[in-house]
Amino acid sequence: MSSGLSDAELATRVAVGAGEILLGVRSGDLLGGRLLGDAGDALAQAWIGTVLRTHRPRDAVLSEEAPDVGDRAVAQRVWIIDPLDGTSEFAAGSDQWAVHVALTEDGAVTDAAVALPAMGEVFRTDTVDAAPANASGRIATSRWGTSYEVAAVARRLGLRPVPIGSAGAKAMAVVRGDADAYVHSGGQYEWDNAAPVGVALAAGLHCSRLDGTPIVYNQPQPYMPDFVICRPELAADILDVVGEVWW
């Protein structure tokens, strides 16, 4: 047991460990489809929950796959996790799924890691590189279709839509420089984007709600209606376009 781990190191090791479990669950042909996704969710959650109870027993936890741990309403430190972001991509054999582990304090992400296990990548707040200087001319979109708001941003700013799987995979495409923006207006939950937003902010990217207000985590109801992650120089234009078509 390594009780002296920093929060960023713990987040990273938890995300990487869960990713290794998920890769093991997906190996072979013993499970498929929904059963494969359910097994991945459950086993990754069990690993993450056990590690956090062991190393941060006083912290609260908000997870997609388990009841809250501790009283989030009064806790100063709250971990927000998604053991398997992109269950359908995972079950279908795609590489575009992720593990999200974030620590929040007073509504802001302080330390986080996003693992993309099938791609062999992990992004962490304390070591992530700044986003590349050169823009890609692309915008990350859902593989299942593009919203009206995203289509408007792409058209007005001349960005080519690139379909990408899970929320974490989309956000890390912007961090990596493979896309310039990820605009979401269809509703998510805090666990879908807390770790990606933490990493994106550490990389110097713009993150906000689509009305331009800051993203605040650990809300009583963890529903997150909308947000944008983008290169800083595009933020004002993106928010202007969304404001024109959204209200």
Automatic annotation (TrEMBL):
Highest taxon in the source lineage: Bacteria
Pfam families from the UniProt entry: Inositol_P
Binding site residues for Mg(2+): 64, 82, 84-85, 192
An example Gene Ontology molecular-function term: 3'(2'),5'-bisphosphate nucleotidase activity
Biological processes per GO annotation: 3'-phosphoadenosine 5'-phosphosulfate metabolic process; sulfate assimilation
Record keywords, A-Z: Magnesium, Metal-binding
Names of required cofactors: Mg(2+)
InterPro entries for this protein: CysQ/Inositol_MonoPase, Inositol_monophosphatase-like
Classification via Gene3D superfamilies: 3.40.190.80, Fructose-1,6-Bisphosphatase, subunit A, domain 1
PANTHER family: 3'(2'),5'-BISPHOSPHATE NUCLEOTIDASE 1 (PTHR43028)
Name of the featured protein: 3'(2'),5'-bisphosphate nucleotidase CysQ
The species this protein was found in: Gordonia oryzae
